[in-house]
Amino acid sequence: MQYLTDSAADLDTAAQLLAAGLQVAIPTETVYGLAAVADQPDAVRGIFSAKGRPADHPLIVHLPQLDHLTRWASDIPPLAYTLAERFWPGPLTLVLKAAPGVSPLVNGGQSTVAVRWSSHPALQGILGRLGRAIVAPSANPFGQISPTSAAHVQQHMQGHIAAVVDGGPSTLGIESTILDLSGAQPTILRPGSISAEQLAPLLQVARRLAPDAPRVPGALASHYAPRTPCFSVSASALAGLAAVLPQCAVIHHGTPLASAGWQRCLPADADGYASQLYDALHEADRSGCARILVLQPPADSAWDAVRDRLQRASQPWADQADQPRP
After folding, report:
1. Is residue 322 scored above 60 in pLDDT?
2. 192, burial (CB in 10 Å: exposed 0-12, middle 13-18, buried 19+)
C-alpha cells in the first residue's frame, strides 16, 4: 500500500490510481473513506472485497461538484438544492431517487441513491483531477471502528488496497448525517454533525425511521465496534467498575479517574467528543486491555450522533449479569 501525502504530486497519483480502477483510502472531514470510481463496476467490487462488506449494503456517492448530482439522482426536489446551498460541501448525505442506470453495486439494488459533496480540500483536489464521482465507505474492515487518520487505515487495510492519502486527522470524527428526501417526509436515517436543529429552519424532519426506509450505511445494530468487548456504563457505576475490573480501558469525558489504569478523557462538548471518539476506541483496542468501558453520553439532542455510534459499538453494562461488579 502506497503512502501518499496531500501534495499536488501525490494527489495526481491518487487520481491516477483511481482512474486505473484501484481502491485508494482518502481523507474526508468526517472519517477516512475507501474510494473507487463510482461508474467502474470492477473497482466498486474491489471495495466490497477489501472491506468484507455485504453486497446489499449501499454506498455513498461523493460528487466532484454539484452539477454532477443529476448524473446520479432523478426527480430531485427543490429542497435538495436548498439544502445543498446551505450545507454542501459538507457532512450531509442526501438520499434521493436514483437516476436510470445507477448500478445496484452502488445503491444495494434499491431505487434510491445516497450522495454527498465533501468539503475536505485533499478530496476535492483528487475529485477535481479525476472529474468523476467516487464511492467511499469508511476505510476499515466492515463493522469495525471507522478510521479518522491515515495510521488507522494503514493498521487495518495494509495489503488490501493500493494507497492511502494522508490528509491529517478527520476534523469531525464521525460519519455524515444521512437525510432521506425520497419519501413523503424528510427523515434522518443516520444522525451526524449536522443536527435536526440545524436542519429545522429549512424543513421539519422525522427522527423515527419508517419500516420501508431505504437501507443506508451504518444502520446495523452492531457497527463501528472495536474487537475488544466494549460496554457503555453509567456515571454512577464507572469509577467502581474501573477499580474492580482487571485490564480495563476507560473512555470518559470528565475528571480523570484515580481508580482507572488505561484511560482517555475526551472533551466534554459533543462536537469535541465526537472528533476524538473513534481515535480513542482505536487506541483502547490496541491497549491490550480485556474490555473497554465508555461513559454513557448525555441525553440531550446535541449528543444524538455520539449516542448512535456508541449504541452500535457497545452494549450496556447492565446486560452483563455474570460479570464482576463493584
Report:
1. no
2. buried
Q: What is the pLDDT of residues 86-121, one digit of tens each?
A: 999 999 999 999 999 999 999 999 999 999 999 999
What is the distance between the alpha carbons of residues 92 and 65, in angstroms, rounded to a whole number?
Answer: 14
Residue 180 to residue 118: CA distance in whole angstroms: 18
Sole residue written with cell 446551498: 85
pTM flag (> 0.85): yes
Sheet (strand 177-180) strand order: 2-4, 163-165, 24-26, 33-37, 134-135, 60-62, 112-116, 92-97, 177-180, 187-190
Phi-psi category of residue 110: left, alpha or beta, with phi > 0 → left and psi -120 to 50 → alpha = beta
Copy the grid coordinates of residue 128. 477535481
| Euclidean distance between CA atoms 26 and 232, whole angstroms | 31
Contact 26, 14 (CB under 8 A): yes
Question: Which residues are 114's β-sheet partners?
Answer: 60, 95
Q: Return the exposure string of 229-243: e unless at least 16 CB atoms fall within 10 Å of the residue's CB, then b.
A: ebbbbeeebbbebbe
Cell readout for 175 is: 460519519
| Cis, peptide link before residue 89, omega less than 30° from 0 | yes
How remote is the C-alpha of 235 from its chain's centroid?
A: 27
* Rg of the chain (C-alpha set): 20
The DSSP secondary-structure symbol of 227 reads: S
User: What digits encode the pLDDT tens for the residues 217-244?
Assistant: 877 777 888 999 999 999 999 989 988 8
